[in-house]
Please model this.
Amino acid sequence: MLTILFDGIAYGMLLFVLSVGLCVTLGLMNFINLAHGAFAMAGGYLTVVMMNWYGISFYWCLPAAFIVSAVLGVVLERTLYSRLYDKTHLDQVLFSIGLIFIATAAVDYVMGASQQIINLPAELNGRFEFLGASIGVYRLFVIIICGLLTVLLQYVIGRTRFGSRLRASVDDRRVARGLGIDVTGIFALTFAVGSGLAGLGGALGASILSMDPTFPLKYMIYFLIVISVGGTTTITGPFFASILLGIADVAGKYFVPSIGGFIIYSIMVLVLIFKPEGLFTRSTRR
Amino acid sequence: MSAVTSENLRPIGTPSEQLVAAARWRWFEFLFWGIAILCGLSMFAPMLGFNVPIIPSKMMLMSEILILGLLALSIDLCLGYAGLVTLGQGAFFGIGAYTAGLLAKHGAGVAPLSDPILGLLAAGLVAGFVGFATSFLVLRGSDLTRLMVTLGVALIVEELVNKLKDITGGSDGLQGVMSSPILGIWEFDLFGKTAFWYTLIVVFICFWFCRRLVNSSYGYSLRAIKGNALRARAIGVPVNARLIQVYTLAAAIAGIAGGLLAQTTQFASPDMVAFHRSADSLLMVIFGGAGYLYGGLIGSVVFRIMQDFLSNITPQYWLFWVGVVLVLLVLFVRNGIIGLLSAAVSRSKGAGK
Amino acid sequence: MMKRRLLLAGVAAGAFAVPFAGMLTSAVAQEVVKIGLIATLTGPQASSGRQKVAGARLFMAQNGDTIAGKKIELIIKDDTGVADQTRRIAQELIVNDKVAFLAGFSLTPLALAVAPVITQAKVPAIIMTAGTSVITERSPYFVRASFTLPQQTIPITEWAAKNGIKTAVSLVSDYGPGIDAQDAFKMGLEARGGKVVEQIKAPLANPEFAAFLQRAKDLKPDALFLFVPAPTAGSLMRQVVDRGISQAGIKVIGTGDITDDDQLNGMGDAVIGLTTSHFYSAAHDSPMNKKFVADFKAANNNLRPNFIGVSGYDGMHLMYEALKKTNGNTDGTALVEAMKGMKLESPRGTFSIDPATRDIVQDVYIRKVERKDGELYNIEFDVVKDVKDPTHK
Model:
């Protein structure tokens, strides 16, 4: 029982790190970036290449995945995405789907269509018993890293000068610019961090989720579920939504495997019927 | 996506004259359907002894394009006219496909039951009914909420199709669908000739109906909702009722499209309900340009031909080039293919002055 | 104003006219036999399509492209793994390209979708992957060059019963072949005195197996039987290891799909000792297979051939032999007749086509994952000869 709870939390945490970047771009910048999963895929494949081709330690892959995805994010943001902030959501959807197609085919071309597998360092494999629950060491590792990131994110957005500038830019871009805030720079940096987090999530998830060229499309639905259930006005909303969905998904599959597939979708539909703006939404400001 | 160009182009006159003028059939529309008919007629050329190199070799592809166009049309009705974003149209498409498929399978031989036209009506009715039942879910919330609720419904329907193995055949698909001759006269053939004519006629009738609808005062009330739901309500448009009606109608049309696919391909599979079906068709509407009725049709024509063309050249990496086209289209054009055309025309007009 | 309309119409016209452009070139040259290979080259099943195409191409490279004085032309199409696409492509290949054979079909629904078409057109279709038994019964023009799930599953139940496995849980993907595998496993094991405690079905598109595996683990059976389509085997095995199934004293067994040669080497030492039953291993010890593996790797960027690759290869072989036998006659019924009872040498060993069912009859090996020459391989240590699909009447 506790094992299930633990697995659910780990899965949820992973979902959160993967999707929090999308939450930032959508909620704060009002930009629908469906290609978010492509950044996660970049991080995942980078890990695969570094570990399997060059034998670099897994621990170095994590920061590398963050940095490379973030740089990739900033480059794309400056060259492509920034031209689309003023376009309609439909255009943004079409554009980011186009990017997914390109990323999928490109990865396929370079890495092949097979699933990529990495082998974690020995100390992260294995399990131990704790309070009657069987704990996977790697999942614990995932929970700790994702937990730290969440606290850090919450702190940066809520408590720092950068966070308040970001929130100001989001609330009213023109006024913020008038106050001397470098809105363009802030957006670029935010986009980079969001992409970087996705990359990190991809690296962390490379051994749990499967890394293949269809990754961005396969997980897009999950990202969107997290965001729509959690709402996009806070970071804590998607966080709790991810945990909830993670636990519900794992527990559902464990206890009633025959309808396991329904559970996550049903929860989403139910939540959205009763709370159309998401479960954890501050009263809307705009 | 406001500022629909066709409205700006309207000749000046009294409001009622304008409405009548807007509803008039334009010659380019005749051309569009005329070409579709010509495509169909080309199959008779060899029989008449003409040495026309046009052989009906892509009949199946053209039927499929028309069917997808019809599905896209149903989305355009929601999205382009009522401003209702939906990512779940595949659910109704699939329901229609299974309804028509099951009817053809179990009704085989029983004369009136097995007729394809009856099958289509049933497909439309059942899909419309499910659409009505789920329409209450899309009344509230933002675009994202609607997107996800409709997607959620579609995913649940997909799971159901997979689980109800005894009825639907599960993931193997519905086997043994035997389409009877239409009205007992026209048999479906391997070349897809009958299928093409049948599809073309059904799609045209649905299109004609939608065209009448959006050019009526009813259609204008939908556009008012899209423009601003609060104001529409203030001037007396029953917003919720309208949304329910248009969503139900769109579901029924999607169901008919699904029924067409099941009848012309003689099977139904969970692919027809799958997420990618909904996503692709939404993509085609945006690709073609939302809010023109022709957007979905032209979108699916261009998109599918592009896909067919590219995947014949590079069966493994065609997706890359499709992606490039999408990105370039968004970067340089507004409102999809139709937007591209208007932009090109404005430029040529500017040059002519 | 009018110009805009004009342009709009022009494009609409052009768009509709494009399909015709291709038809101008469809004059069929003499003495060419076309084979339409419908593979899934994009999407989640893409890796299986690659293997198949590579296998088919390799056979042509090794054996030339002329049979009975006719030139063989291979037309490769991507069906994206969607059944109505497979069907449309099949129809186009038959009607436009006048192919003598269809081949491919990554998934069961894709094969089933073309059944009415090939029956109507009398064109033989060689199944190179799809593994549900029932497919060959759906059209008299299907011939299978791959395998069926029951055929692969029964031998492992024999092995399990011999090795003291009394209780088992099965975990399969929820689609045709998965159901076939779990049913065959239950039938086989219970006929030999064992008991299947629970049959778990995971959704086909399933990113997370953790919960299902935990459930299987908590049921504490002697063995856990696994089947998923080969392209998802990697992540499943990763999680089997992560969950410590073997450490809990549960023997992990399955069909060869879960230790797919394509991915096996990446799975790590944790899968060493895993026992599976299957018809092909890249480590199969025969001169023909050694050459096959070496040539395959050389032509495909060092990709290791798997059971789909060998099925693509053997599928081509079947078609070549059939054409040889009919002396170039491309009548569909004659070709199917020619293939019935055919016995061929293959990298997997010898296989034959059952004249009654047009299904494949072949040896099924029991293998264990071992490290050999620094890489992980399925090493065959036992064999069940000439296995027929047990569910065909």
User: Anything to note?
Assistant: The CA atoms of residues 246 and 252 of chain C lie 7 Å apart.
